[in-house]
Amino acid sequence: MDVTPLNLRIFIGRIVHFIMKGTNMKNLLALLVGIVLTVSCASAQTELWRIWRPAGAVETMAQDNQGNTYICTYSPTADPDSLIQVGPDGTVLWQVALATRFHNVRPTANGVYLSPPLSLTGPVYYYDTNGNLLWSFSFPERSMFVSYPVVTPDGGIVLAYSTSPPPVGDVGFPPLDATIVKL
């Protein structure tokens, strides 16, 4: 028997209520029903599925409307970073090697977007639901992402980035601009 903290609090509350109200058959019956409900409602969560990756870590995950989970992994060893699609039942549907590390995974009805982490630069990739790379989009030099991407209802993606103009003398860097783009 596994008793969760919430069920334990309910059980203790029923005992306190029983003691405070006095001993009569109605309160005794309420206490017994509370004990039965507490014991019968308590359960341990079981694993539904598990995936194991040797020598790697999960960078980020997201789930689409069909229950598929997209996992970006990276490896500190020679193994390539990867994007993995896992079905609702835990079956690995496909896995593709990635050329760089990604922090943002945004699924759509027809695929998944990958974009670099905030404050870094790099291309945005779009894979279809079968793991095929459909396109990539690169931003201008000296640009960095300044907001997490947003998937639009039509399946597009909106990203914000800033470009860093070259330093001006000893003043340092002038303020960054902000560009918002929909792909």
Name the beta content range: 25-35%
Side-by-side strand order of the widest sheet:
1-2-3-4
Overall pLDDT metric: 74
Oligomer class: single chain
Sheet bearing the most strands, described?
4 strands, antiparallel
SSE order, one letter for each helix or strand: HHEEEEEEEEEEEE
The helical percent reads 10-25%
User: What Rg is obtained from the alpha carbons, in whole angstroms?
Assistant: 26 Å
Helix and strand content put the structural class at alpha+beta
Distance from N terminus to C terminus (CA atoms, Å) equals: 53 Å
Poorly predicted runs: none
Shape descriptor reads extended
Our count of helices gives: 2
Number of strands: 12
Q: Please, could you describe this protein's structure?
A:
- This protein has 183 residues and is of the alpha+beta class.
- Helices cover 19% and strands 33% of the residues.
- The chain contains two helices and twelve strands, in the order H-H-E-E-E-E-E-E-E-E-E-E-E-E.
- The chain has helices spanning 5-21, 25-41; strands spanning 57-63, 69-74, 81-86, 92-98, 104-107, 111-115, 124-128, 133-137, 143-145, 150-151, 157-163, 179-182.
- The strands form three sheets. The chain has a four-stranded antiparallel β-sheet with strand order 1-2-3-4, with no helix packed on it.
- It is extended and about 80 Å long.
